[in-house]
Known about the structure:
CATH architecture of the largest domain: Up-down Bundle
CATH superfamily of the largest domain: Butyryl-CoA Dehydrogenase, subunit A, domain 3
Cofactor: FAD
InterPro entries: Acyl-CoA_Oxase/DH_mid-dom_sf, AcylCo_DH-like_C, AcylCo_DH/oxidase_C, AcylCoA_DH/ox_N, AcylCoA_DH/ox_N_sf, AcylCoA_DH/oxidase_NM_dom_sf
Shape: globular
Number of domains: 3
CATH topology of the largest domain: Butyryl-CoA Dehydrogenase, subunit A, domain 3
Order of helices and strands: HHHHHHEEEEEEEEHEEHHHH
GO molecular function: acyl-CoA dehydrogenase activity; flavin adenine dinucleotide binding
Protein name: Acyl-CoA/acyl-ACP dehydrogenase
Family: Belongs to the acyl-CoA dehydrogenase family.
Strand order of the largest sheet: 1-4-5-8
Amino acid sequence: MDLTLTDERRAIRDAARDFLTDAASPDRVRAAVEGGTGFDADLWRGLAIEMGFAGLIVPEAHGGAGLGAIDMALVLEETGRCLAPVPFFETAVVAVTAVLAGGDAAQQAHYLPRLAAGARVSVAGTADRPTFRAGRLTGSAGFATFAHVAELILVATDDDRIVVLEADTPGLTVAPLPGLDRTRRFARLTFDCAVADGAVLARPGAMRQAMTIGAGLLAAEQTGAAQYSLDATVDYVKQRVQFGRTIGSFQAVKHMLADMMLLVEASRSAALAAAAAIDMSDGAVDAERDAACHAARAYASDAFRQVAADAIQLHGGIGFTWEHHAHLYFKRARASATWLGTADAHREALARIILEDAA
């Protein structure tokens, strides 16, 4: 498996980085976080619509760029680097993958152009799932992301189907949930809604496939955030003076930084390997693809949590303050470690694949 980046892919990564460096600067992200909504509309417009990244993996026939998971992983690493407070992952990865995996030709023709054009999506049912019976969705789902600004709600049901609801559907209630990560807001959704036949993506296993692929690509976002934590820490220890010398000159600090770098680099390799396995898959059931996604997600979750914690420690007293950005990365690490499955859950899934292959 050759993970060397082509010039075209480097250009995609650099374009995303250049845009996000200004549009999602720490001050901009903090303004969105502290402004009450936790969402930056201008950032979304630029990233998803003007730059066209929302349609990166949407087929060209449906208005997208028709690129692959590796290209998406490179963009996700940059959105993770800045903790972009927008539902990019939910829209451009989970929703697009779900429609491709679960929708028929008519549903793909209806939803994919909307997603490529930047229709914001919330993902619900990743933990508890509502009931879908006789054309009606009832019950509730917690941990729905960016539901307060979504145009479409992607809901995993108790019978393993996917329902796509318009955000203004009668009988849908959105209640914000307090959460650790204020850069990715969560809500609890309550349903008592009539659902049209065309809004149900019913291909068996589609949601599981979308969640597995999504988990693999979430590893790229986590890698980007871990890389920023490392970079910011390296900059800090070069400047912080203690006992008459910069703390970065102490051997113990160098050892910690070296361990952090190894975690980040290994995480990046795992995330790119998962993306390559997704690209090599034909879109059907694929044990090798799923194994790579589970492995990447488990490793990236653990790596990001460790790097973010070490960054807090090496920043010393200032790292614990609300005014410093380090705590935002620490909180994203803790929150993302449980979203779309914990690291232990992904290791268990990987173990099952290995055992089934050996049987």
